[in-house]
Amino acid sequence: MSTILKVENVKRTFGTKVLTHALKEVSFEIKKGEFVLIMGKSGSGKSTLLHQMGLLDTPTSGEIYIGDKNVRELNEKQKTVFRLTKLGYIFQEYAILPELTAIENVYLPMMVNTESGNTPKREKAKQMLEMVDLGHRLNHYSNELSGGEQQRVAIARALINSPQILFADEPCANLDTLSTKTVLELLKNLNENVGQTIVMVSHDPDDQKYADHIISLEDGLIVSDKYKVKGELK
Ligand SMILES: Nc1ncnc2c1ncn2[C@@H]1O[C@H](COP(=O)(O)OP(=O)(O)O)[C@@H](O)[C@H]1O
Ligand SMILES: [Mg+2]
Prior knowledge:
The protein is built from 6 helices and 11 strands. By secondary structure, it is of the alpha/beta class.
């Protein structure tokens, strides 16, 4: 499989007088179709790493390639377009807009994406909500949806522009056990059935069972980078 994302000697330091070395120097590659899990304790640098990969922040030094593109070459406007059309995100907070219904939330990113083809927006959004098993909740507002349902709306929205990579930062941190399982199995199915590349951050070692590439961070450094081969970590 081809490399879809390459992180090369990336460092991220915060602050001016007192420096926090959130990422010390990390390098690794992700191939198309992988389900990558980034593990580590709170404060180990997981979100910082995800933000660098997802073009939500800029490294202090080092390079990031998405496909063949060194993202440092993109200006702010190009970065915004890249994020919108090529990347998808889900976060711990579902970040769906309370003023909009489920279906309106899902087709929102399509309204700014001129590349999304001719499929009528509502129809495509409906298909995405059906895919996350919310075909019966199209016109509900967020206060009429459970946490798990809201996160599934966020997943449908993240996928509507067919992103090359879906980034998820602790997507189940606010969910109960049952909704967590539903959301993680949904992500796993997306990965297996449509080959969606997923990069997920979690502090829960149980989530390893869903991933096939597991990167562990400790104090801003990668302490292990392993692939699962026939269920065993190598
Ligand atoms: N914007 C920021 N400004 C200053 N320090 C930050 C910032 N973001 C993260 N940090 C620090 O960097 C370290 C790693 O944070 P983070 O990547 O959020 O960890 P994790 O997601 O693994 O819990 C922590 O010490 C955190 O306080
Ligand atoms: Mg975090």
